[in-house]
Amino acid sequence: MNELNELLKRGAFLTCEFEGKVNSMTIGWGMEGTSWSKPVFVAMVRPSRYTYELLSKANTFTVSIPKAGEMKKEIGYFGSASGRNEDKIKMSGIGLADAKSIEGKVIEGCECYYECKVLYSQHMDNSCFLDGGEIDARAYKDGDYHYIVFGEIVAAY
After folding, report:
1. Beta-ladder partners of 21
2. What percent of the chain stands above pLDDT 90?
3. Which pLDDT tens digit goes with each residue over 137-153?
4. In the chain, at which residue ranges do the beta strands (DSSP E only) sit?
5. What distance in Å separates the CA atoms of residue 80 and residue 111, rounded to the nearest whole number?
6. What is the pLDDT of residue 3?
7. pLDDT for 28
8. Is residue 51 helix, strand or coil?
9. To the nearest whole percent, how much of the chain has pLDDT over 70?
10. Does residue 147 come out as left (phi exceeding 0), alpha (psi in the -120 to 50 range) or beta?
11. Any residues with CB less than 8 A from the CB of 125 and at least 6 apart, and which?
12. Which of 94, 147, 93 shows the shortest CA–CA distance to 120?
């Protein structure tokens, strides 16, 4: 778990595809573990993101983690530009490859890949925060609460 946290601190790409549209966004955190006796990757995506539009319709996603010190420019770009307004894949010049075990794409040239099939998803409910409102006030001033997705890891390499 600590190893994954260190990898994600550098940034990673969460990519999804629906009806031929592919979009990727930068993530800086996520969780890997076991739920329902299955290996899972838990990701959180805000509904304001274009990736959410695709992910909420698709049943798969991938996580591509670049090698240390590489793809910093692309990680920054994918975290600041919207796929709703431009084709980030084309504009960045990075390559896509077909995922090995699911319908979807991975970012070429990365160090680590997770291919996931969505098992469960739910919008966050701010009434469930039990910290006296500190997280809500700090992270969700605009009310753009994350969509939590549990993806069964069907391939990791």
Report:
1. 18
2. 63
3. 998 988 889 899 999 99
4. 12-18, 21-27, 31-35, 38-45, 60-66, 96-98, 105-107, 110-123, 147-156
5. 22
6. 63
7. 85
8. helix
9. 94
10. beta
11. 145
12. 147
CA-to-CA separations, 93 to 9, 63, 72, 108, in angstroms, rounded: 23, 18, 14, 11
- 8-state DSSP, 127: G
Check which CATH number belongs to the domain holding 90 and give it: 2.30.110.10
Tokens 């800086």, residue located: 28
Residues 37-76 have pLDDT tens digits of 999 999 999 988 889 999 999 999 999 999 988 999 999 9
Contact call for residues 39 and 153 (beta carbons, < 8 A): yes
Q: Which helix (H) or strand (E) holds 67?
A: none
| Cβ within 8 Å of residue 29, ≥6 positions away | 5, 8, 9
Domain that holds residue 55: 2-156
Name residue 123's amino acid. Answer: H
In the chain, the number of structural domains is 1
Q: Which amino acid is residue 143, in one-letter code?
A: G
The pTM for the full model equals 0.91
